[in-house]
Amino acid sequence: MAQAGRLGRMRLPWQNVLCVCVCAVRVHLLSACKSGCESDPLGDGFVKRVGSELVDEGDKKFRFASINAPNLHRVEVEPKPAECSLRKCSVEEWVRAPSEYEIRDTLCSIRQMGASVTRIYTFSYGDGPGFHVNRDGVLNEAWFRVFDQMLAIARDVGVRLIVPLINTNWIEGWGSVYEYGDWANEAGYSFFRSQSQRAMFKATIELILNRNNSLTGRRYADDSSILAWELGNELTDDEFHGFPVPVEWTRDVARHIRKFDRNHLLMDGGFFSTQVLAVTEIDIVGSGWRIMPNRI
Ligand SMILES: *[C@@H]1O[C@H](CO)[C@@H](O)[C@H](O)[C@H]1NC(C)=O
After folding, report:
1. What residues does the Glycoside hydrolase family domain cover (predicted)?
2. Ligand 1 pocket at CB < 6 A
3. Which residue's CA is the closest to the ligand 1 atom numbered 7?
4. In this predicted model, what pLDDT tens digit does every residue of 253-289 receive, in sequence order?
5. What residues contact residue 264 under an 8 Å CB cut-off, 6+ apart?
6. Cα of 121 to ligand 1 centre, how many Å?
7. Closest Cα to atom 1 of ligand 1
8. What is the pLDDT of residues 206-229, one digit of tens each?
9. Could you tell me if residue 97 is left (phi over 0), alpha (psi between -120 and 50 degrees) or otherwise beta?
């Protein structure tokens, strides 16, 4: 601080030059922001895994560092309306679809940071019009149209997406693996052990992969704007993140996706477990880091 103050008083001549440079950059950024950002469409090629590396469609090494964009396809209104603490609001009262501007603006910001990938949050699961996947695994057309739009804009801006399929923890407004227990009439946290819930989830996955985008006509499984399907968000075999998902489940669901989709990378979606390294269908092993009472 003290040093900066001294420099300020001295008014070195080069400071004026620096200031002009910064202004020039600012003007450039502002004009880019005004028009959203330049369209820089993705090609039709996919990022592949070769050994332990990712390569793009031109066989060049593909690496990225980026941030999440959890609300890119579904916006939670924050703060939740005050009356929701007095009575239970329906999810439609505080969750809404993002506008085209919001989607483009977020993706452009990510692009302007120099990133080529972002990760969104999961599809939402629950009964009623507020969710992507409704009772018994039926897709909600209105929410998937918003998803169609997000994919089309991501393609145009040139950002690829990591899409986690389902959440472990039940979060109000998003639903989770618990919904399948409900729909299958099975109690407790039984998702990874129940064959009927697994069959229902696989049927949902099949519908998602085979969906044709209403704007671009592309089948989701053939859309290069998706970098990877992540089997879920923070998947664990218990609701307290104590035990990894049974590796047999991961292998089985990954093979199921491969039946319909030979294009996209597959990411496991668990906290790090060494067992998953043996699943050859999985291309990216994720790791969740967070401070919790019983682990870090
Ligand atoms: C998607 O489009 C293809 C080609 O037009 C068509 O054969 C297929 O049935 C469509 N799929 C769905 C789920 O509508």
Report:
1. 181-269
2. 210, 212
3. 212
4. 999 999 999 999 999 999 888 899 999 999 999 887 7
5. 46, 221, 226, 227, 228, 229, 257
6. 27
7. 212
8. 999 999 999 999 999 999 999 999
9. beta
